[in-house]
Amino acid sequence: MPIDATVMTNVKADRVRRTADLSSRKHRERSGRFLIEGPQAVREALTWQPGVVRDLYVAVDGTEPDAGFANPTVASLAGLAMGEGIYVHKATPDVVAHMSRDAQGVVAVGDLEACRARLTQAPSTPRPFIAAFWQVRDPGNAGTVIRSADAAGCDAVVMVGSCVDVFNPKVIRATTGSLFHLPVLAMDENAFFVFCADHATTVMAADVYGTEGRPPESLPDVVREGAALDGSIAVLFGNEARGLDPVLLEQADIITSIPIYGKAESLNLGTSAAVMLMTLAMSSRIERM
């Protein structure tokens, strides 16, 4: 598709307002569209999931039809989009900023159902490595843990229970594009444990305290023993403030914790997920060497 040579200059235009409104879940569901902000997230969407991108809005340095792109990064993304047959719209920096304060010169609009269909494809690997997160409510935390799961080579992420919408622009921005790299499923607590049972997946709950009569095993001990790491694993992390509910801990096959060697009381969710998932990922690769 061609690039629209007409530069969008009216910050009050309906298209600008509709795009900005995608920051609201109500408007995302109503329109069937979602917002992708900033060069990195847009680049990953165009590279790995171009089929979900419907429009790209890029900042230019003037109002004339031949106005140049605001910077080389924006020009590169426009070229990538046009190569995929995606319509590119030129706009003034003010217009792009009204669409998103975090645009950094580029905003994409994606097809909600097309992306949702891809995200909900269960992993087909024989021994899936899954990161699961229960009742994660903070958008920044949700995006960070999805990014950590991607970096650790997880085959899927499962958002368990009442979690923040993964199409929240803040979530997508915090993933830095990882949302477009791996499946991100959503299911309730019962469905999660049924899913794990059906896929012969060991549920490893990450928890500092464990339950009465069942203290957590230290992560280094779990890795050293190795038996629990054979086969498929789903590592379940809890809510940012409350951790995991005791009912969930009772259903887990293993409860493990990250040892604290210094004086810090605990680690936050993002750090815990990164440490535990990367430890397990590196351990599994050492064992295969």
From TrEMBL:
InterPro entries: Alpha/beta_knot_MTases, MRM3-like_sub_bind, Ribosomal_eL30-like_sf, rRNA_Methyltransferase, SpoU_MeTrfase, SpoU_subst-bd, tRNA_m1G_MTases_N
Molecular function via GO: RNA binding; RNA methyltransferase activity
The UniProt record lists the keyword Methyltransferase: yes
Parts forming coiled coils: none
Pfam family, one: MRM3-like_sub_bind
Full protein name: rRNA methyltransferase
Organism this protein belongs to: Bifidobacterium pseudolongum subsp. globosum
Keywords in alphabetical order: Methyltransferase, Transferase
Ranges of residues in domain RNA 2-O ribose methyltransferase substrate binding: 35-116
CDD domains attached to this UniProt entry: SpoU-like_rRNA-MTase
